[in-house]
Each structure stands twice: as C-alpha cells, then as structure tokens.
Design goal:
The chain has helices at residues 27-88, 93-101, 105-112, 116-124, 126-131, 136-146; strands at 16-18, 23-25. The termini are far apart. The protein has a two-stranded antiparallel sheet. It contains 6 helices and 2 strands.
Amino acid sequence: MESDFVCLINLDRGIQLEPERGFFSTGTDQATVTRLRREGALLRSRRDSLTRQLATVRAERASRDAIINAAVQQERNRAALVVNVALAKGKPELAAEFIKNNPSLQEFQAAVDVNAKYRREYEANRAEFAKVGLSEESYIRSRRLDDGLERLPWPSTKQ
C-alpha cells in the first residue's frame, strides 16, 4: 500500500478522504464546514474589531483619568495657595469660604489684602508718584490714615 490514509467508501453518502484538511467529509458536510469556516472568519473579524474598540476605550479612559487627576491636583494646589495666603495675611477663617466659593487666587488675595485697593491706586499713578518721590508704602500708609484705618501716633504727654 502506497497511501498512508485509509478510506472507507460508502456509495450512498459519498464519503471521501480529504488528506489536505485532515478529516473525512461527506458532500452535505462540506457545505456545513464551509459555512462554519465563514462564520469562524466573521467571528474572528468581530473579535479583532472588538479588541481594537476595547483598546480605544482603554486609551480614552486613561486620557480622561489623566485630565481628571490634573484637575484635582490643580484644585489642591489652588486650595493650598489660598490657605497659605490666608495664613500669611492673618485671616485663616477666610480660607474655607474662599475655597468653597472658588474665586481666582488674585480675587482672594485682593479680598484678604486690605491694602489691595491702595496698591491699585498707586499702580495707576506710579509715574506721577515717582516724580514726587512718594513710595508705595508711604502712599498706602497715607491712604489708610485718610480712610481711618490707622491713626497717627500721638506723642506721649508723660514725662
């Protein structure tokens, strides 16, 4: 015998050996095999498509998480700055209110800094004040006296 395959032939069913595929098939089974192969190819294609979609979703989720984490870190940094400014200005009770109301750091500094109004006035006329030799500190002190926020020290009458 020259062939390594044994083939049983049933004339009613037309069984034939298909050594290249490694199995026996019948004429009606060949259609089923072809259909199953097509379905398998479609399933593999669908699996590959879903795998790509999953990779895209994971990448989008990672990107979204990075954006959220950056926003959270930015808010933590802002809150820390607000607390530090409030402590530096001696008004820690304002920190929680300003963190909750979410103003910009500049708005918070202006609210905590009682001299901010005077600083803005000085900045608006810096060139004029510089001509007469008036420093920012002197201007602020003068304006605080004008508004009654400070009093001039009175000389002591005790001797």
